Amino acid sequence: MNLAFVAQSGWGKSYHAQAWMESNAEEYGALVVMDYCAEYRGLVKAGIADHLIVGPVEAQWSVQDWMAVLKANPRIVLERHKAEIGTDRWRDICTRIASAVRRLDRDQLVVVDEAHFVAPQRTKLPQPIKELATTGRGAGTSTMWVTQRTAEIDKTILTQCQARMIGGFDGAEIGPLAGSINYPADLHDPGADLLPSSVPDDLLPTGRERPTSLQKTKDDSGSITGTEWIYSDDDGDRRRVDTGTVSMTSTHYGSEGNDLNPPEYA
Length: 266
Prior knowledge:
Helix content: 10-25%
Largest sheet: 10 strands, mixed
Radius of gyration: 19 Å
Oligomer: single chain
């Protein structure tokens, strides 16, 4: 299966994605995580995966080198060295990793974080990345393409996904995925106020009548305790889920970023 895992920034995307990785790790012979932002170290600390920081030395490795590394470490988080490896260089490295993955005959889950940098719409899609998305399923490979920028990722990637986990988007800007869903796209806009009658019964929220669109839940201190998502696939399965009910052993260490505080105005 190829899964598009998308939501706007701040929707708990990497947390939810990590829960999927953890729950599926034992179902596959291998797990390869291309970690652009160093957000999945929790899988390493929990003993679910090994860890490798990809820096200037690793950037020189050939496809054969990567095959050897992936064979020796079936479950591994490949973390980009932020200070040393820029976006273009990371895309080149991921292309070689994808080639190595494709040559390994095994059941494996491959996760591409910040996938719009690895497969950008603005440049020609590298053949190994395209093959990972278009032919990986038949070779026993499943993929997760994690992004918040659907307009910037190559359309081939999203259109080849047989399943979608979509969170909130202001203005319901879900881009190429809009044609893959059979419910109102505005359901993904937290600010939309759709009438319950316009939302399929199986996608209505539980415990409240409105708003019907996907929402974040917060505790009394204002901290986010969960976000709502919609899962759908080409087999007709679809359901509304809340990450507040996710059970996960590993700790998520993703950065939430720093706030900007306004100055005092006279």
